[in-house]
Design goal:
CATH architecture of the domain at 1-190: Orthogonal Bundle
Strand content: 5-15%
Distance between the termini: 30 Å
Helix content: over 70%
CATH superfamily of the domain at 1-190: SecY subunit domain
CATH class of the domain at 1-190: Mainly Alpha
CATH topology of the domain at 1-190: Preprotein translocase SecY subunit
Radius of gyration: 24 Å
Number of helices: 18
Shape: globular
Largest sheet: 3 strands, antiparallel
Strand order of the largest sheet: 4-1-5
């Protein structure tokens, strides 16, 4: 990866894109440090640390680089845009009009969908901003509570979410890689120094032993290697194309494959599952019920009941996402239209049944992989007595996935630049 970055830095065009990306990330980090007016930031941070770290808001805080717990301008981060994209993607399955925009109208349809996604992002940002203000007001975390302060706080959060969306789009257009993913990556990585500082402080105070720190570091490195291996793994279904004679030319006849990634759903099942599994703990936190037996033994993200529910939800959402993303009948029909077939299976329904069976097996393995990565930090945290590891698996998958994706994008642009063409 470092060799790829060093080689890309030597190319003027890529160097400009890298510098542009770094400049956008700098603006993002500055926005994460600018607090919203009328909010008692110290009291809010303390409340998050002791009451909301195990809730769905703790997940949002991790995704935003701790900006959510400090009520900064970019507190909502990229979450409204991600949620809006998921909502629009699911609605394209329900509403035929949106499906036509996505499939039949080409680039113009994609631009219209992007415009709808932006409007949805602003709407979600407004809703989340109002909810955030209501929470701040209910727990008396505002320095001044009146209509003017409410309008300023809500509009600041909404404008921040819209600006983060725009920054991500600028990276995608003029920078390197997927801008939304890179901003999410930057927010998560920005928490690493504070996590290291917390571990050092715990080591000095004697809360954890030195060998525990060494085991945690080694385990994290092994987990990263495992995630990289599974992220790059794929099942390749062999496909052959029959020869076709058009005029005096012969087309087809080549052998290729249909690649299906093992972790085809990425980190989305974990995010969905964690959001739903954390809802009871979130309700308890809002109703000051974090000291009861039910919270400690059932709702808390360190309990066995939570872990079992978390595992089941990850598996269910993995199959749901695979069903939404892959249509075996459509894949089989496309192969048949282009003269392709899978050896040993007749075109049409037999091919669709084989693809569906293969996808189900891969989804099961991918769901088990996500479950292991998501539950391992919880198990380790309970064993060694280190809190705050419950969302570690989600963060690691996002960071590793974005790093691999960005390096691949850089290598692709370097390959295009050095391609000589057929005239030389």
């Amino acid at each position: 990866m470092f060799t790829t970055l060093r080689n890309a830095w030597k190319i003027p065009e890529l160097r400009k894109k890298l510098l542009f990306t770094l400049m956008i990330l700098l603006i993002f980090r500055v926005g994460n440090a600018v607090p919203v007016p009328y909010v008692n930031v110290e009291a809010l941070s303390s409340y998050f640390r002791y009451n909301l770290s195990n809730t769905v808001l703790g997940l949002y805080n991790a995704m935003s680089g701790s900006a959510f717990s400090q009520a900064t301008v970019f507190a909502l981060g990229i979450q409204p845009y991600i949620n809006a994209s998921i909502i629009i993607e699911l609605l394209t399955i329900v509403f035929p009009a949106l499906e036509r925009l996505a499939k039949e109208e080409g680039e113009e349809g994609k631009r219209k969908l992007n415009r709808i996604t932006r409007y949805t992002t602003v709407g979600l940002g407004l809703v989340l901003g109002i909810a955030y203000y209501v929470m701040l007001n209910n727990y008396q975390l505002l320095v001044t509570a009146n209509v003017l302060s409410g309008i300023v706080v809500v509009l600041s959060f909404t404008a921040g979410a819209s600006l983060v969306m725009w920054l991500g789009e600028q990276i995608s257009e003029f920078g390197i890689g997927n801008g939304i993913s890179i901003i999410l990556f930057a927010g998560i990585v920005s928490r690493v120094p504070s996590l290291v500082g917390t571990m050092v402080s715990s080591l000095k105070s004697g809360a954890i032993q030195w060998w525990t720190c060494i085991l945690l570091v080694i385990g994290m490195l092994l987990l990263i290697a495992f995630i990289v291996f599974i992220t790059n793994a794929e099942r390749r279904i062999p496909v052959q194309y029959a020869k076709r004679v058009v005029g005096r030319k012969v087309y087809g006849g080549q052998n290729t494959n249909l690649p299906i990634k093992v972790n085809m759903s990425g980190v989305l099942p974990i995010i969905f599952a964690q959001s739903i599994a954390s809802l009871p703990a979130t309700i308890c936190a809002f109703t000051s019920g974090t000291s009861g037996w039910w919270y400690r033994n059932v709702f808390s993200n360190t309990s066995a009941v939570y872990a079992v529910c978390y595992f089941i939800l990850i598996v269910l959402f993995s199959y749901f996402y695979a069903t939404v993303q892959y249509n075996p009948v459509e894949i089989a029909n496309n192969l048949k239209k282009n003269g392709g077939f899978i050896p040993g299976f007749r075109p049409g329904r037999p091919t669709a049944e084989f693809i569906a069976k293969t996808i189900n097996k891969i989804v099961l393995f991918g769901a088990l992989f996500l479950s292991v990565v998501a539950l391992l930090p919880i198990i380790v945290g309970n064993v060694v007595g280190v809190s705050g590891l419950a969302i570690g698996g989600t963060s690691v998958i996002i960071v590793v996935g974005v790093a691999i994706e960005t390096v691949s994008a850089i290598e692709a642009q370097m390959l295009m630049r050095h391609y000589k063409g057929f005239l030389e």
